[in-house]
Design a protein that fits this description.
Layout (H helix, E strand, L loop, with lengths): L4 H7 L22 H13 L3 H4 L7 H5 L7 H10 L2 H15 L7 E11 L2 E10 L5 E7 L3 E3 L1 H21 L4 H11 L2 H8 L6 H15 L3
Antiparallel strand pairs: 1-2, 2-3, 3-4
Helix pairs in contact: 5-8, 7-9, 7-10, 9-10
Length: 218
């Protein structure tokens, strides 16, 4: 699997903002195809429509990713139970701030095939800037094609999530149970991320450590 570490560095900007607030909200429709999901995301980010872009993230994944930003277990559990569209909008807003010219210049966006992990099918979309290096954004069919944040950006998220998940494992509450149950659903996505042969051994180890922590309660 190919992926540029440049994109992973860029995504770090989406995980370093203020702890997000959460409100209830219905999840909008996904895109018609993997390529359309990335094209729609690009159009919405370049026009600053982060709220509309929230529907292009797999539901609950932005809430879980907010653990890397310091969100409380209560905030995450509330978003999982009532909708994480606001957090997803914040994620894409941070992504857009760091993405610079990568999404605003000339791009080739094309289908790069599929891969399957633990019975879950993932769709690979190659994004290549003019005279640049191809990056992969990975989608799933969840009532339409949506960006899988953990498959696409797991190498950045993993290191920052290890400590919060360790704390969760030592906590006994309804909020922690809701959050840990949702985390188990992203294990296939993290395994896809860890299969990237361009990653450093240290980054792969962070992904595997996060997977081990999550599955410890499985």
């Amino acid at each position: 699997m190919r992926r540029s570490l440049v994109l992973l560095a860029i995504v770090a900007s989406a995980c370093g903002g203020n702890t997000p607030t959460t409100t209830t909200g219905a999840v909008g429709e996904g895109a018609e195809s993997p390529v359309a999901a990335v094209e729609d995301l690009r159009d919405l980010l370049t026009s600053g429509e982060f709220g509309a872009a929230s529907s292009l993230a797999v539901p609950n994944q932005a809430a879980l990713a907010s653990l890397a930003e310091g969100a409380t277990t209560g905030q995450v559990a509330d978003a999982i139970e009532h909708g994480d569209s606001d957090i997803a909008a914040n994620f894409w807003g941070g992504f857009a701030q760091g993405v610079g010219e990568i999404f605003t210049g000339e791009l080739t966006i094309e289908d790069s095939g599929t891969t399957t992990e633990s019975g879950v099918e993932f769709f690979l979309v190659g994004v290549t800037p003019e005279a640049g290096v191809e990056r992969l954004i990975i989608t799933r069919d969840v009532d339409g094609q949506r960006i899988d944040l953990f498959a696409s950006f797991g190498p950045v998220l993993a290191e920052q999530m290890i400590a919060p998940v360790e704390l969760l494992l030592g906590t006994s509450s309804e909020d922690s149970r809701v959050t840990l149950a949702a985390l188990q659903e992203v294990v296939p996505s993290l395994l896809v991320a860890a299969a990237d042969e361009t990653l450093s051994p240290e980054t792969v180890q962070s992904l595997l450590q996060l997977i081990e922590l999550i599955t410890r309660v499985g």
